[in-house]
Design brief:
Blueprint lengths: L12 H13 L8 H9 L29 H7 L2
Length: 80
């Protein structure tokens, strides 16, 4: 656990009990059980490779090129 900041104030036992009771009463809160934790520890980590090139569908329309002759900067220069 990282060291606490110098201005950290820990909750009292009564405040901690009130916080825990409010969290347990919240229906959207996930309450881990021993069974859940055991199942989670058996799962393999999932890694996503972000270094590969994106897969482009053969049916996808071609992307416009930034060097095309009809770019706004090219049109502006042609009107000079």
């Amino acid at each position: 656990m990282p060291p606490l900041k110098s201005n950290h104030i820990s909750p009292t036992d009564e405040e901690d009990a009130a916080i825990t009771a409010a969290a347990m009463a919240d229906p959207d809160t996930f309450h881990p059980t021993e069974e859940n934790l055991a199942r989670l520890s058996q799962m393999k980590p999932y890694r996503v490779s972000i270094r590969s090139r994106p897969i482009i569908s053969p049916d996808a329309p071609p992307r416009p090129s930034s060097t095309s002759s009809d770019s706004p900067s090219q049109k502006w220069r042609q009107n000079e």
